[in-house]
Amino acid sequence: MSRVMGENVLKTALDTIKKYNMLARGDKVIVGYSGGADSSALLFALTRLREELGLGITAVHINHGLRGAEADGDEAFCALTCARYGIDFISYKADVRAEARARRLSDEEAGRVLRYERFEDALTARGADKIAVAHNKDDNAETVVMRMLRGAGAKGLSGIPPVRGRIIRPLIDVSRAEIEGFCRQNGIEYRVDATNFQPVYNRNRIRLQLMPMLSAFNPLVADALTHMAALVSDDNALLEGLADEWLEKNAVFSDNSARLELSALAAAPLPIARRAVRAAFARVGGGVFDLSGLHVGQVLSLCKKNSGKTLYLPRNIKCIRQYNSILINNEGDAAHSYCYKLAIDRWVYLDRYGIYAYLTFDDRPEPRPYSEKKLKCCCTKAFCYDKIKNNIELELRTRKNGDRIFFKSVGGSKKIGHFFSDIKMPYDSRLTTPLLADGSDVLCIFAGGLRGKAVLSDNFKPENAENAGKKRVYLQFWEEANGGIDN
Q1: What span, in angstroms and rounded, lies between the C-alpha atoms of 236 and 326?
Q2: What is the pLDDT of residues 140-159, one digit of tens each?
Q3: What are 44-75's pLDDT values in tens digits?
Q4: Closest of 38, 85, 33 to residue 181, by C-alpha
Q5: 236 lies in a domain?
Q6: What element of type H or E holds 51?
Q7: Is residue 289 domain-shared with residue 351, that is, in the same domain?
Q8: Bridge partner residues of 260 (DSSP)
């Protein structure tokens, strides 16, 4: 019986590879190899299929550093096995507990994240095409149950996808019992992780305690759950396609933000609206693993809130009800912020804009001191120098907390954020608008870009009566004579 079971594993794996177009002839494959039964069976099966499919194979082992000498033994076993069979081998060490603390994740989740990061490293190092991991039918069924207990939607109940990007799962239709029979039949040695039999993680408790109880009601419970997951996956794919169509018509994306039309979002069927929000978050934040159904509901509730209402989402992503739209913006992207230090008679190249800045006491344009470049002055702004506190250095930068600008009309200073709100500046523009600042005192807001319309603080306007006759400083912008980069 084990012989039949073993042959079935190889046939099922090959059928799965063909069904989902997992591999093309000549592909180089990174195989996740822990040394356990599942990954050992996967490595052996792909090695058996290597000639038929023309594959290049590299086994990759990650030592998580959680089980001391036992984990080191797993690593040594994997290295020795690959050397014996002439399989290219890479091993990585990781401090999962330290990474879990640093990333604020559980040990289990940190281990998963680190594994895939190292697989990607190996894929780059070997110039490989795919990453093969050894999830099986029982893993899929347990995942469905675990997500069901969390109250997951259709996406979660679709289970583990056979293919996700460059990640493939050739054993996803093979049971754990079949894998163990395949190993016995072919004399495949493997390591046993004792922690798999300890109910310390939720997945282990589901595997060891809950699945046997469900099997008492239906001995083929893994088949039933994976069949259900496949049906849900098909339905979910249709709804996600409709959500993508909705986004094409009603959303505008930039590198770090998504702007959704509010009225269209409020009118969309709830299954489409939820998926549109999740897809927008994924594009801005790089994934949706930590975006819960509660978060999605809170985003949709902004449709009924006043303009300016703000919601903070995972990964430093901010969601704002803004006039006629819902803005999802990645606050954590460092590309938003910049700061150039400006001093008298010092040329500074503004690489973000492709032009030069020059502070001077002389309003007459000076020739660029570098003979290899012909420059022309494209804009000059004048300020009252005597009002500047830090007369050694100014900053041309994006806004910071505490920034204020002075206006006589309001009888004092106004927060930059309030000023941006008053002029109804789009939120993503607020993050990149250049300011000339003396500490937290803003001399000028370049609301129209460095060569466009600017708003000067009344404190620093040379033409104001109280500043008459006082020393002036000029900020000049220079571009190459054949035309610089527009801002």
Answers
A1: 24
A2: 999 999 999 988 889 889 99
A3: 999 999 988 999 999 999 998 777 788 889 99
A4: 38
A5: no
A6: helix 50-53
A7: no
A8: 251, 326
